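Handout, page 2. Input:
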Amino acid sequence: MEGDAEEQSSESGGADWAELTHECLTNIFSRLTFQDRWRGTMLVCKSWLRAFKDPSLHTIFNLDPQFDPPPELPTWWTPNFETKIDSMLSSVVQWSHGSLTEIRLRHCSDRSLAFVAESCPNLEVLSIRSCPNVTDDSISKIALRCPKLRELDVSYCYEISHDSLALIGKNCPNLKVLKRNLMNWLDPSQHTGIVPNEYLNACPQDGESEAAAIANSMPHLELLEIRFSKLSAKGLSLICERCSNLEFLDLSGCANLTSRDIANATSNLAKLKEIKKPNFYIPRSVFHTERYGHWRLYDERFQTDVFRI
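Output:
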């Protein structure tokens, strides 16, 4: 008898889980981790799958934690992996019914981004790092159809040009954050064997054009990351002159800039709280710097000539 009661209780408990209301299920799913939600809940039964697809669970799609911490994997740069990411993003866009406001992922393509542009007019955050097949075609659609964009990260996306940056700036007046970092072209060995060589060699050379696009179309920027950009002192000065609200500026790896260039350009940024300067290293002994006796003087006298491209 006791065993029968336990069995009935167990069955009853299982039935209770299966018969939870849609509202209860979505509330529970909203508290789960990304992995638990995607790898388990949708496969239990039809009612759970319906709850999983509720638009309230898909206002934010953040895959970034799945790519961290480094290092990257070579499989991430394959067509098969890109197809999987596109499929996930397209599904979330469909389930969101236009409520998606934040997207953070990597290795998607124009295919899924075009769908984002068509279906997500309320998009505010778009972070699509390391996407070799995202081009001006989809970014121009994002610019024209997602005017609420306030944060954009197109780091390591080499098929996106300065024309797209200008179009984003012109059509997205609320843009406050731009991240346009390039891979470490000073020491590409850290990417060898992971990123295809032809993509590494395609590193954008138009630092001045990108600087002009940022300066002329994004006056309200508060945070700007342009690591390993090939802009010059003239380009940086233009950015700092036109983007006077900058609070954070990351210039790590910008080899064409000296400390004097940066100091002169940023002197008028009253709101600037933090700046990251070029952080590559050249042994001082190579230049007999004891002759000068001051690291800052070495920095201004030699750094630019050594790395000028």
